[in-house]
Design goal:
CATH class of the largest domain: Alpha Beta
CATH superfamily of the largest domain: Response regulator
Strand order of the largest sheet: 2-1-3-4-5
Helix content: 40-55%
Structural class: alpha/beta
CATH topology of the largest domain: Rossmann fold
Shape: globular
Order of helices and strands: HEHEHEHEHEHEHEHEHEHEHHHEEEEHH
Strand content: 15-25%
Largest sheet: 5 strands, parallel
Number of domains: 2
CATH architecture of the largest domain: 3-Layer(aba) Sandwich
Radius of gyration: 22 Å
Distance between the termini: 59 Å
């Protein structure tokens, strides 16, 4: 009996009779990102923002003002098999209560069941396949990213208007051959068929993630002579595509609207992007610079890193602060309680005050579509004629989500 009494005494001292964590217990936060591989640029920018958010919270004493956050960082190498290994290590070895990440929807889908089984929170801040929250839902997984359906529907709505204006009739697609690219391309094609049924899809190109031969694919697209091409590429793949489009002057022959041009591309690849190009993005800081939380984030990011925050930084920062607010809502660190506090919760973000939808834990974030143009206020191009699509106008109807979970068409 003595060992049992000792164990009970330890638990009482550590957590208290009320179930609160000990005042000096740190909050162990897992961060799983693709710090090498095609997701490295986005992941490193996200990590910068996570560290900034954590420092802000720790300056105020930590979670609940008394639990300093410890970051436990892992590199998924943008590979699902590696992501599974590092997620288990973060949980079993490091004892994290939440994991923020990852880059690549395949890696996020790989760690979702691991987090669910371990009852560890999973905050998706880069990967955005809608299947992460639409199918096989986990009460521990939350998304602060406009998912593939939301982004693709916004693009389809905008491109349908352009197709009518410019009398486009034929198009091709190019998308990375993994869950995010497949999901994005599928929704784009379905929505365009509904909105502009007279516009014909003539070719689908599927380069694997990490592909480098985009020059040949640009030539292939040019030879097809479509009116426009829609792309779903990201990270290094996206940068190589834009350079190939520039080098071969593809945009002089074929319209290239609706591709992913995040703030990362605008800042670091802007010279390769044709001005006037219509494109999508996920969380541009300049769309919400009138929000006090966004402006404070911009100022601190500029002060620390000497550059404006990318979309990936914005979403990662919001992910940490959404987690903080979930903890504050239940006054506990326990992830079972925090998940309940986050479900259906309204949280303050750099993009405004937004709510997690009950059915899928998807935050009601906007999607964006605009025209790349130089701007006197910045040393890089931004979006002009920016269209901001509220979540309610672009996310998948709840009835369709319920039907998909039941295997109904």
């Amino acid at each position: 009996m003595r060992p049992l009494r000792s164990s009970l005494l330890f638990l009482v001292l550590a957590f208290g009779a009320s179930g609160h964590a000990a005042a000096d217990e740190p909050y162990r936060l897992g961060v799983a990102l693709g710090l090498t591989g095609p997701g490295a640029p986005y992941s490193r920018q996200a990590l910068d923002a996570i560290e900034l958010a954590v420092d802000e919270i720790n300056e105020a004493g930590g979670m609940l003002g008394r639990h300093r956050i410890e970051i436990h960082l892992a590199n998924t190498r943008t590979r699902p098999d590696v992501a599974e290994v590092v997620a288990r290590e973060l949980i079993e070895r490091d004892g994290v209560r939440a994991i923020i990440g990852t880059y690549s929807s395949d890696t996020a889908l790989a760690i979702k069941p691991i987090c669910r089984d371990a009852r560890v929170l999973h905050i998706a801040t880069i990967s955005n396949s809608e299947d992460l929250t639409r199918l096989d839902p986990s009460p521990y997984t939350f998304s602060v990213v406009p998912n593939t359906y939301m982004m693709a529907k916004a693009v389809a709505l905008a491109v349908a208007d352009l197709a009518q204006e410019y009398e486009w009739r034929r198009y091709a697609t190019i998308a990375s051959d993994y869950s995010w690219g497949r999901s994005s391309q599928q929704v784009l094609v379905e929505q365009l068929a509904r909105l502009v049924p007279h516009v014909e899809l003539i070719e689908e190109l599927w380069p694997p993630l990490g592909y480098v031969g985009f020059n040949a694919l640009v030539v292939a697209v040019a030879n097809l002579q479509p009116d426009f091409v829609l792309e779903s590429l990201a990270g290094v793949d996206n940068a190589l595509w834009h350079r190939a489009v520039w080098d071969y002057r593809l945009a002089d022959q074929v319209a290239v609207p609706g591709g992913l041009v995040s703030v990362s591309e605008l800042m670091f690849e802007g010279r390769w992007i044709r001005r006037g190009t219509w494109a999508r993005t996920r969380a541009p800081f300049f769309a919400h610079s009138d929000e006090a939380m966004m402006q404070a984030f911009i100022d601190r990011h500029l002060e620390r890193y000497g550059r404006y925050p990318s979309d990936w930084a914005v979403m990662a920062y919001d992910g940490v602060h959404a987690l903080r607010q979930g903890i504050e809502a239940v006054d506990r660190l326990d992830s079972d309680r925090v998940k309940d506090g986050l479900t259906g919760a309204t949280v303050d973000t750099t993009r405004g005050r937004l709510t997690f939808r009950d059915i899928d834990n998807q935050l009601g974030v906007p999607a964006y579509f605009g025209r790349v143009a130089d701007d006197p206020d910045y040393a890089f191009p931004i979006f002009h004629d920016l269209k901001v699509f509220p979540a309610e106008t672009v996310w998948r109807p709840e009835a369709e989500i319920a039907a998909a979970r039941e295997g109904r068409p």
